[in-house]
Amino acid sequence: MKQIAPDYYEKFKCIAGDCKHNCCIGWEIDIDEFTLDYYNSVEGEMGERFKKYISREGDAPHFCLSDNERCPFLNEKNLCDIISALGEDALCDICADHPRFRNYFSDREEIGLGLCCESAGQLILGNKEKTNLVCIYDDGEKESLTTEEELVLKLREALFSIVQNREKTVDERIKDAFEFFSIKPKERKITEWAEIFLSMERLDEKWTELLLKMKNAPELTDALTFENEFETVFEQLLWYFIYRQFSLSAEDGRLKERIIFALESCLFIMKICAFHKKSYGSISLDDIVEYSRLYSSEMEYSSENVGKYLKVTAVETHKV
Ligand code: SF4
User: Fold this and answer.
1) Which residue among 13, 21, 23 has the greatest number of ligand 1 atoms within 8 angstroms of its CB, and so is best to mutate?
2) Which runs of consecutive H residues, i.e. helices, occur in the chain?
């Protein structure tokens, strides 16, 4: 078994109290069995709080969010009371692992950092070097993968070369990636894009407001005028979606749908950035990180939305 991760992975640090969009706000966190047993054994004030703020109803035990959607253990300084009182080892699996994601192959685990976290977003999109994969754990045995998995990894290698070809613009690289799969990219107006995402499940009001603004906007057809530094930013974005989303086709065999989802995720964030630049006259790396965070939280963390995109948007519009 091998564990693979992007080369920036080990540099990640949670910025905790300085985080504007704390992951302890707005997400209902399930608690794994092992940690729940531990929480049940804690005595004193923390034990009382665990009794009070863990719900055993529904599919899985979880922390009950407060009225303003905050985790009941997130204090006014936006720090975690569980860590302060009991140490980091006391976190449940989901809290300890976030914002990491994992894709599993038969003899390999691929790990990455999710763009839903602003600190991860800064690390990923601010990286000026071409991203590489590194092995962070190796049991020393020869890797044994299925034929389908080997095919997906081979195609992904080719895609990585296409998206990291710095002799071309990111737009050209996206076209090349579509062509590599013999897919004719679908041209959409910004209003059509907005309608697609408005038809999906939405969590954050900011996302809905943005989509409505785009839907009601006058035609915006010109692309964002990239400065060199943003070419690299969007290259990283593209690489991220291919690594996270295309790789899942090893599991479900939906190669074309998943490459469409990966490429169009990047394309749509580029459209949002173009829209922002047109509206406000300029755009910064922080803005791009924030739009990527918003998109990732709304889409990548909703299996319903990803499923709908793969089934409806990718299939119907591209005749996959
Ligand atoms: S979103 Fe990221 S930086 Fe913010 S609290 Fe969560 S893990 Fe830390």
Assistant:
1) 23
2) 33-41, 44-53, 81-86, 93-97, 118-125, 147-163, 170-180, 190-198, 205-215, 228-244, 249-252, 255-280, 285-295, 303-308, 315-318
